[in-house]
């Protein structure tokens, strides 16, 4: 299964790399922080964020707050996870593979 997932990841990465001109890759600083002001979050129903302690330290209370807020939104607004309201499964619903 792991090999299958890595192959799907590499396939998706290859298909998106073709969309970005190679000259753009040389202009990007991989150590920089970027912002995107070309879109409005009000146009997006669900979005995630990178929660990896890069810039700040998070308290245990914030972990619980974020988990509960995301869970409640998914259940109440999007009718997902109806039977999974127990806090016995991991907080992360998606993990980067890079």
UniProtKB/TrEMBL annotation:
Keywords carried by this UniProt record: Hydrolase, Magnesium, Metal-binding
Organism domain of life: Eukaryota
Metal-binding is among the record's keywords: yes
Classification via InterPro entries: HAD-like_sf, HAD-SF_hydro_IG_5-nucl
Keyword Lipoprotein appears in the UniProt entry: no
GO molecular-function terms, A-Z: 5'-nucleotidase activity; metal ion binding
The protein, known as: 5'-nucleotidase domain-containing protein 3-like
Taxonomic lineage of the native organism: Eukaryota, Metazoa, Chordata, Craniata, Vertebrata
């Amino acid at each position: 299964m792991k090999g299958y997932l890595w192959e799907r990841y590499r396939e998706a990465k290859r298909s998106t790399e073709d969309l970005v001109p190679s000259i753009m890759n040389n202009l990007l600083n991989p150590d920089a922080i970027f912002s995107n002001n070309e879109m409005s979050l009000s146009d997006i129903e669900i979005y995630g964020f990178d929660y990896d302690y890069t810039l700040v330290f998070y308290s245990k209370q914030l972990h619980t707050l974020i988990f509960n807020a995301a869970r409640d939104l998914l259940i109440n607004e999007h009718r997902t996870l109806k039977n999974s309201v127990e806090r016995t499964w991991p907080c992360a619903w998606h993990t980067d593979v890079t």
